[in-house]
Amino acid sequence: MKRLALLTIFSLSLSLQACKKEPAKIISISPSDFSTQDQIKIGDAFRNTIEQSPGQFNILDRAVYKDAYIYIEKLFSTMLNTAQVERRLVYNWSVHIINDDSKTTLFFLPGGHLYIYTGLLKYVDTESQLLEIIGHEIYYTDTDLLILKMKDEFDGKTLGDILLGNNVPQMGALAADMPMLTFEEKDVMLADSFAVAMICPFLYEPLGIKSLVGKADSESVNLDWLMTRAANLDSRNSNLERQALPCGLNGVTNEEAYQNFKTEYLPK
What average pLDDT does range 100-118 have in this prediction? Predict the structure, then answer.
């Protein structure tokens, strides 16, 4: 009887052990769960892909174009060090200049990595113009609009796979699509307002975006950046002017310094 009881206990023990499960492995992530740290990791994965794609993204060497990077990074820091940027101390903000005069745009990766094409740098006329379009782009990154747009365009499961380190065969194609992500007009207008609020305390001329839009319109130039950040021209100008009223309209443009940057520091 005792032997039977022992066998029964032993069998029950084995049964309970068999019921214990291995810790569940995470095989997918809901897009709504992308935290700030998740976005940093996703951005780093895209950055690694870009760095390994010199044919697609010909990034200027920092050692060779040191002065160009110093100049742009100084302007970039000006826009980052404002109260509007909630993640200014959280993201790993960085600047990368892509040597391609045929493209006139810029874009961010999640986590704060800025990529700006020489084509846009050469089309811009003043520091005030460049500062405002950088500020405009910071808005999408700082408010999660960028990661939400990527979720819509690339599929949330794909972003989850990237975050988990799973193989994503189309990673190169996704990185190539980043400069072409398009935002809705209402978000473009909000980003414009955000950019003006950022530049206002620095006594720069606060209508840099308006002047850049006006230049492209008068010259009938299809600026890549404006093609993906489109808005009704009259409504956009009215909004920019309204946002700029508290700033005053006598700020500096630093056109001479910027023209010198283009002449002296960028590839010919």
Answer: 99
For the chain, what is the domain count? Answer: 1
Instruction: Render pLDDT for 178-189 as a digit per residue (tens, 0 to 9).
Output: 999 999 999 999
H-state helical runs in the chain? 2-19, 36-51, 66-80, 118-123, 127-142, 145-154, 156-164, 171-177, 185-199, 208-218, 224-228, 233-244, 255-265
The answer to whether the beta carbons of residues 143 and 39 sit under 8 Å apart is no
Instruction: Give the pLDDT of residue 248.
Output: 83
Residue 131 contacts residue 204 (beta carbons within 8 Å): yes
Tokens matching residue 23: 């810790």
Q: What is the pTM of this model?
A: 0.88
The answer to whether residue 10 scores a pLDDT higher than 80 is no
227 occurs within a structural domain: yes
Q: Which of 150, 170, 78, 165 is CA-nearest to residue 108?
A: 150
Q: Which residues contact 49 (CB under 8 A, 6 or more apart)?
A: 171, 172, 174, 175
**154: domain range?**
32-265
- Is a pLDDT exceeding 90 seen at residue 14? no
Torsion sign (Cα): 213, 230, 205, 71: negative
**The two structure tokens encoding residue 140:** 């999408």
